[in-house]
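Before relying on records like the one below, remember that each one covers exactly one chain. Contacts with other chains, cofactors or solvent are not represented anywhere in the record.
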Amino acid sequence: MALEHLVTILKRETEAECEAILAAACAEVEAIRAHSEATLAERRGAVLSAREADRRAAVELALVAARRNGRREVLEARRRLLERVFAAARARFPEALTSTGYRAVLPAQVDEALHCLGDREGTLHFHPAIGEAVKATIGKRAGLRLVPDPKIGSGFKVLSSDGAVEIDGTMEDRLDHLATRVALDVFAEFEARR
């Protein structure tokens, strides 16, 4: 009987120990599963955040590229507009040579250019359309050679013989010097009409 009792006690203790080991194993399995799920959720969140950040970065890059392309197209359109305005102005220069407004300021411009030449000898190249006005302005100035030249542009150029002085009194040169101011005026007028 004592042996049966001892076997029963050992059996109970073994069953209790097995249940305790099983319960500990189940608890450990549950802790591992919970940790795995938390790690998986954390990684999933990190991946989704990274994807969202990448998507936002891609959208931002696309917006930047679209803005840059839009600005480039606007600048290109403005450049073409200025080319048309300057071409139209240059096309009117030959007829402007005979206008009363130009003829009124021409003597002062020629005198100013000759003043810069000083006592040096030189050459005054001029468009044939303004030849009479130039000759009347110069009178009998010594040391100045007059050269009618239709290729000079719309106006005149004064060159000293020694090459130290060159004055460009053509409308083309004046337009080139005033291009920035003209461009601003053209764009202001364009914006005002929109």
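The first strand starts at residue 122 and ends at 126.
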